[in-house]
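Please, is this right?
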Amino acid sequence: MAVPWQAGLGGRRHAARGGARKRAAGAGARHQLVFVDRLVATLIHLRHDLPHAVLALLFGVDRSTVTRAIGEIRILLAERGCAVPDRPGLRLRTLADVFAYAHAEDIELRLDATEIQVRRPPAGRGGWCAFVSGKKKQNTMKATVIADWRGRTLWTDSLRPGRMHDATAARTEGIAVCFQHFPDVEVLLDDGYLGLSRDHRELAITPPRRPRPGALPGRVEQWERDRQGHSSDRITLEHALADHKRWKQLMRWTHRRDRLPDTYRAIAGLVSDRSINA
C-alpha cells in the first residue's frame, strides 16, 4: 500500500485543487511521519476514535500532521476493497465483483442494510431532512453490506442518506443488473426487501409470508419453521454487522458526513482481512 501512497496521493490532492502540478515530483515539505506510523495512527483513530490532538501527542508531531495522515491513509484503505477467502491477492470492490465471485464459487450471499447515527445538518439547509431515518427516528446514513455464509464481509456500498429505503439503496447500487447477468446467484434478504423478491423471484429470497387467518394449524407450524430457518441462515450477516459496529467510529459518527463512506469502506476491508485470517 506504500507504493500508491507515495506515487498517487500528491497527484490526487493537486487534481482536487483544479490545476496542473507546477513543481517537480518529490519537491515540497517532507512527511514528518513515516508510512508505517501514519498507518498505525489511522488504525488507532478508526478503532478507538482518539482525537487527533491525542495522537499527535503520542507520535510527537503537530495535530495538523496527524489530520493530514489520517485523511490520506483512510482513502487508501477504502480503495482496497474486501478480501476474498481462499483467494490471496484478490479483493472485491464493486457489487458486480461480488456477484461474479459468488457465481464462480457457487455460494449464497446475504445482504442487509445498517444505519449509523450522524450529526444533524444545520437548520434551514436544503436537503437536511434526507438524513432523518423513519426507523431510527434519528439522523443517519445507511450502509448496504453483503456477507457470505460464514459471516465474512464481502462488500459495502458508498452509503446513502438514512431516509432512503433499504431496497431503494440496493437498486441504486445496480443489484437488478447483477441479477440479470448472474441468474444463478441467490441472495438472502429480510422483510425490508419484499419488492426485490417480487421483481426477482427465486434469486432475492425473503422470509415466507404468513398464512392467511384461518389457515390449517399444520401450515402455520410449517411457516414458523421455514421462517426460523431463514433467520438462522441470515444470522451470520448480523454477526458481520456487529463486527463493524465494534469499531468506535461506527457506533456514532461525529465527524463530517462526507467522510463516513470512506471510513466505513476502510473498516469493512480491515474486518474482512481479519475474518479470512482467523
Remarks:
- The beta strands are 82-83, 91-92, 109-117, 140-147, 153-156, 160-161, 187-188, 204-205.
- The chain has a mean pLDDT of 89.
- The CA atoms of residues 82 and 270 lie 8 Å apart.
